[in-house]
Amino acid sequence: NVRYAEMQGRTEARELRRMGLDVNLAPVLDVLTDSYSPNIGIRSYSKDWKTVSEMGSARIRAMQENGLSACAKHFPGKGHAPVDAHLGLPVIPSTWHEMEEVHLKPFVRAIEDGIHVMMTSHPLYPKLDAEPGRIATFSPVIVRECLRNNLGFKGVISSDDLEMGAIKEICPIGEAGVRAVEAGHDILLVCHDLNAQQEVFRALTIAYESGRLKVKDLEESVERINRLKSYRKKRFTGGAPHAEASGARTASEICAHSATVLKDIRHEIPYDAGALKTRKVTVIFPKLSSFDSKIMVEKELLTESRFLKAEFSKHGINPMILTVSVEPHAEEIRSASELCAGADLTILFCFDAHLYPSNKELLDTVVRKSRKTAAIFLRDFYDAEFVPETVPCVTDFGWRACQISASIRKLFAK
After folding, report:
1. pLDDT digits over 111-144, tens only?
2. Considering only CA atoms, which of 337, 321, 320, 326 is closest in space to residue 287?
3. Integer distance in angstroms from the first to the last C-alpha of the chain?
């Protein structure tokens, strides 16, 4: 629904501008394929490049019309990357023809829409750049020749985070910063470690002073960055920070329409909530609150059991709830096995069984031990392949509170 993408773009632009933010590192314009995508996955709009282009275009235009610069990522497209670049080096064997037919198209549309910023990423494309081992971030063929010259992008080009595992496999982070600038980047992301940021700064200074970095290229980068700044006359717009009145309602509506039944050959969904009131229902859920030290977790999910009790009570169900680690250990898997063996229905909220072997073990154990199982996939819808055809499974492509609520409604609401 393209209207939803537009509504999201408008809402986030207004809220972020009130907070003094002027660039949003979104949207993701990577196109999925049929192969497993461990990094992009739920962040992509579709396996259809036309859908990705339309949704991305609507969100970009809405953001930028409301004063917030958008950033399309991850050029030239890595929806088919077999490895998560945060963890290792993805190698993508696509040819220029394959990229032009599918993966480049949403970025071309974004350029036509006047997007302000583009972000590259770290895969190795051996058929796009013949230089052995030269990843996209370091490739003047991909960054300078293709994006800047051939596609005519005039805005700011940003790297992805240089602290990722893919970079660590190749060179020290200071050298990575210099190579990224040589390839044609205007802005470098070094997102977490102050020492890494200082190392990149020192390496860039030395590369400038030694003449390795061309002054003309640096001055052109400064011009592009200054132009990006000039789009906004004020640091803050729209008054004191506050949420858009329609924001939560829009998010809830999007989630309700996106909740999807992945498998249900026996047509069990929606379950009869009335009949389950007198039955034993067990819910197994990951401790998402454990992420709170690293990323923002919504306050509702900081107390998972209370949140789940409230959500299931809306359908008249009072389940036994077991929370387990995001990577459950053997004792937690044993506890889950004992609980679900005595339940009439076990609902397992699964978080990335592809990525975490212990989650795969938990999923297998619950399916094997339960009288009846339903699976809700919080992040990786590809996990459905691990579930027998007779086990109903649902997803809402994420683990925001509104997405979890929508998935529970999908199980019970007629």
Report:
1. 999 999 999 999 999 999 999 999 999 999 999 9
2. 326
3. 22
Please tell me the predicted confidence (pLDDT) of residue 313. Answer: 96
Catalytic residues: 86, 160
Q: What are the two backbone dihedrals, phi and then psi, of residue 27, each rounded to the nearest 5 degrees?
A: -100, 165
Mean pLDDT for the stretch of residues 96-122: 97
> Which is more confidently placed, 413 or 237?
237
The identity of residue 319, as a single letter, is: P
Distance CA 176, CA 168 (A): 9
Sheet containing 69-75: order of strands: 23-24, 69-75, 117-120, 156-161, 187-189
> Scanning the structure block, which residue is given the tokens 């860039």?
204
Question: Which tens digit of pLDDT belongs to each residue from 243-285?
Answer: 999 999 999 999 999 999 999 999 999 999 999 988 999 999 9
8 Å CB contact between 283 and 315: no
Task: Give the model's pLDDT for residue 398.
Answer: 94
Q: Which residue from 177, 141, 133, 132 is spatially nearest to 159, judged by alpha carbons?
A: 177
Secondary structure (3-state) at 16: helix
| DSSP class per residue in 127-173 | TT--STT--GGG-TIIIIIIIIIIS---SEEEEEETTSHHHHTTS-H
- CB of 241 closer than 8 Å to CB of 394: no
Q: At CA 42, angle to CA 94 and CA 63, rounded to 5?
A: 95
As a whole number, the mean pLDDT across the chain is 96
Distances (CA, A) of 284 to 57, 72, 314, 363, 383: 39, 37, 18, 10, 16
The region that residue 352 occupies, defined by phi over 0 for left and psi between -120 and 50 for alpha, beta otherwise, is left
Between vectors from CA 115 to CA 113 and to CA 118, what angle results, nearest 5°?
Answer: 135
Burial 327-336 (b: 16+ CB within 10 A, else e): bbeeebbeeb
pLDDT of residue 242: 97
Burial of 155 (C-beta count, 10 Å sphere; 0-12/13-18/19+): buried
Can you give the pTM of this predicted structure? 0.94
**Burial of residue 233 (number of CB atoms within 10 Å: 0-12, 13-18, 19+):** exposed
Q: 309 with 322: CB under 8 angstroms?
A: no
Q: What kind and span of H or E run contains 254?
A: helix 247-258
